[in-house]
C-alpha cells in the first residue's frame, strides 16, 4: 500500500509539472547591468507559481537572460553559453530563436557583460506584450494591463541610484504600480550575480531571493531584499575600503545606517571604514553611537584590527573599556 501511495504521489507531481509547463509565464521582468560593479541581474513578477525557477538566468562576467511567455528555459543556459563564446547579444538571440519552432510564442530579454541589451517579443504572445531596450537594461512583459508597465520599469531603472539590485527592485515596483500583469500577482524573484559575490566567495550568486506564492509578492520580495541589502551594503563598504575607494565606502556605510538608524551594527562598520581611512574623529563618533546602543561591541572593537590605528587613543580606550561594576 505504501508503495502504491508513493507511486501515486509521483504521478500527481509529474502531472502537475506537465500542466504548469504548458502555461504561459505571463509576466514582466527587467534584465540589467551595472557598469560600476559589473553586476548582472534579473527581477521578475508573475501570476505564475515560483516564477523565479523559470525566468531569470545570469552568469558573472557573461550576461543575464529572462525567458518568459511560453518560456523556453533552454534559452537561459544557451544564451549565456553563446555570450561566453563571444557571440554578441543580437546574434545570441537570433540563434536561440532560429532553433525554436515555437519562437513566436516566446519573449526574451538579454544583456551582456558590457551592458549591451536586446529583446524579442513573439507575435503570438498575448496582449499587451512588448519590450523596451535601453542602456544597460531591457524591460519586457506579456499579458499586461498596458504598455505603461514596461515604460515605467524603464524609467525607474534609469532614474534610480544605488546598487543594481535596488534599481531592479525599483523597476519591478514601478511596473506593478503602472498596472502589471493583467491577471494579478503570485510570485516574484530577483537574481544578481557578481564574480565571487556568493557566500565566502565560493560562487558568483550575489543575490538570489524568491517569493513563490504570496498575495503581494513584490512587497514581500522588497521586505526580504532589504534584509539582504543591509548586509550587502556593509560588505560592499569593506570591498571599497580594500580598493581605497574611501568616499564610495563611506557612502555604502551611510546607506546601511540609513536603512535602520537605531541598529548598532551599521554604525560599528561605518566606524571601521573611517578608522581604516585614518579619519579618527568620524571613526570615534560612529563607534560611540554603536557602543551606546550595544555595549557588547566595545570589547569586540578592542580586538578588531580595523581599529588598530586607534588602539592607543585615549577616547577609544574610554569607549571600549569595561564600565564600573554594578
Any key phrases for this structure?
six-stranded antiparallel beta sheet; 326 residues; 19% strand; elongated; disordered N terminus
What does this 3D model show about the protein?
This protein is α+β, with helices and mostly antiparallel strands and 326 residues long. The protein contains eleven helices and ten strands. The strands form two sheets. It has a six-stranded antiparallel β-sheet with strand order 7-8-1-2-9-10, with helices on one face. Strand 7 (130-134) and strand 8 (137-141) form a beta hairpin. Helix 2 crosses helix 3, helix 4 packs antiparallel against helix 5 and helix 7 packs antiparallel against helix 8 (264-276). The longest helix has 26 residues, at 217-242. The protein is elongated, with a radius of gyration of 23 Å. The protein starts with a helix and ends in a 6-residue tail after the last helix. Residues 1-21 have low confidence and may be disordered.
Task: Summarize the model shown.
By secondary structure, the chain is of the alpha+beta class. The protein is built from eleven helices and ten strands.
